[in-house]
Design goal:
Layout (H helix, E strand, L loop, with lengths): L2 H11 L2 E6 L6 E5 L1 H18 L5 E6 L5 H17 L2 E7 L8 H14 L4 E10 L2 E8 L2
Parallel strand pairs: 3-4
Antiparallel strand pairs: 1-2, 4-6, 5-6
Length: about 140
């Protein structure tokens, strides 16, 4: 159908002529209500955004000389983050003379990764970078 015939047909119906596939040979056009089409597309995109979950990286900071109660509180927060589907980064900062006892900090992080094994798994193992030792935990599927 020629362009003039298509435009005449669309005007008679009180609708718009919308080009659907311009790269086709010949180009494909469709007679439709364009404003309603745009509205439906926006509605579909909004629904898709509602259903998707954005993964955040939550950070928990601890020290190598953490007390038992503080450890349990941090463990509970970590568990909550993983159950929600977020990743968690656990960082341990060594200050001053604590750098001589990096092995104590590694023990705490190993204990933490063992305690959280039911909810998450290690994405990156504990790694020392300057004065900070960090590990990344992702939720279990």
């Amino acid at each position: 159908m020629t362009l003039d015939e298509a435009l005449k047909l669309a005007q008679e119906a009180g609708l718009d002529l919308v080009e659907v596939a311009p790269q086709g040979t010949p180009p494909v056009a469709r007679v439709m209500d364009y404003s309603k089409f745009k509205y439906d597309q926006e509605k579909k995109e909004k629904e898709a955004r509602k259903k998707q979950h954005v993964t955040h990286v939550k950070e928990i900071k601890i020290g190598p000389k953490i007390e038992e109660h503080d450890y349990q509180v941090k463990l509970h927060h970590l568990e909550k983050f993983l159950k929600r589907g977020d990743k968690a980064k656990v960082t341990m900062r060594f200050r001053g003379r604590q750098m001589a006892h990096v092995d104590l900090g590694r023990k705490v992080l190993d204990r933490l990764s063992g305690d959280i094994a039911a909810f998450g798994e290690l994405e990156t193992a504990p790694k020392l970078d300057g004065k900070i030792m960090a590990m990344l935990i992702k939720p279990k599927k």
